[in-house]
Amino acid sequence: MTFSPASARSRTTVLSPRLEALLRDHLGKDAVRLEPDTIGVAGPELIDRVLAARRATEIERPTFKPLHGRSITRTEASSVTRTIGDDVREALKAPLPPNIDLSGPWPLTGHLFLRDLILGRDPRRLTILMSRNLELTPLLTWLVISAAAALPGGPRPTDDLTELGRLAAKATGYQNRRYALGMYRRAAAPVCFTISTLVANALWLGSPFDDSTPNRNIIFESLRLLPPSWNILRRASPEYPPLDPRIGPDDDILVLPLLSHRDPALWDSPNDFRPERWDHLDPDNTPGYLPFGHSSERCWGRHMVMPLAELLLDRIREAGLTVDPGQRTAKVPLLGLLGVSEVRVRTGPGRR
Ligand code: HEM
Question: InterPro entries, per this entry (predicted)?
Answer without folding.
Answer: Cyt_P450, Cyt_P450_sf, Cytochrome_P450_monoxygenase
